[in-house]
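Sample 3 of the quickstart, ligand 2-oxoglutaric acid:
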Amino acid sequence: MLSSSDIEFYHENGYILVEDVVDPALLAEMNKVTSEFIEASREITESDDVFDLDEGHSRETPKLTRIKLPTKRHPVFARGLRESRVPEVLRDLLGENVALQTSKLNTKAPGGGAAVEWHQDWAFYPYSNDSLLACGLMLEDVGQDNGPLMVIPGTHKGPVLSHHNSRGEFCGAIDPDDPLFDMDKAVTLTGRAGSMTVHHVRILHGSAPNMSDRARRILFYECHAADAWPLLGSGSYIQSQGPKMLWDDYLERMIIGQPSLEPRTETVPIRLPLPPAPVGGSIFKTQKSGGARSAFAT
Ligand SMILES: O=C(O)CCC(=O)C(=O)O
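Result:
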């Protein structure tokens, strides 16, 4: 269980760091399977439903930005969600009834693995209320040098900033010159393998390129209160489902408690992520094809 001061800190600042979330044996298994996926990506030349390729990916030097939907690809990633402290953290922060929204394993390769430009997840997937968060489980140590997650405390209580480019397309990132963005207020979240960041769906966050010689593996479990229902965006695969698939998938995604057919609606600031960037499929492709301006350019 989280302490009441941790819970208060999360609600006030929009993030927390929790240590020792997964036991070392399970963590080792998750890393082994992750390495097997990275090995398998040597055969891949274009991003697909499983792999999001980074620039410079090749058979000789595999460079992935992401393994997509890892909980659907291998049971060990679902075990990391269910056989760990994640459910208790979710209960403390989102209540008794919680579902997985999506999962992604961001594998920032050594030697320049891509930055994630500053954004609010909420800009990608507005819901009927904002009881959503992302758990970022560190599969390996995350330090200052390998592209750690950064957040701007308190921004989860503010507006949803524009994530649109000058052509009016959704580009999945804010403009670094936005007067409401102040990088000097950023907090960097580092930790030992097995630690987990939790960030609110509306908090501004991003991460620099990985300029170190070791990978940065963070497995994100994005979760929502069962009575938060998507307005638009969400996992692209959720949008493409018919009612039967949608329902079966929702039940499969439940983590604790019961599903809800009565969306809780709240007055929350919303901007829809339309029209889309020319290429979607991942935040990396949306930001690149949408011409997002970088806050990390040197
Ligand atoms: O991998 C990261 O550093 C951040 C990931 C993120 O914010 C995202 O995928 O939406």
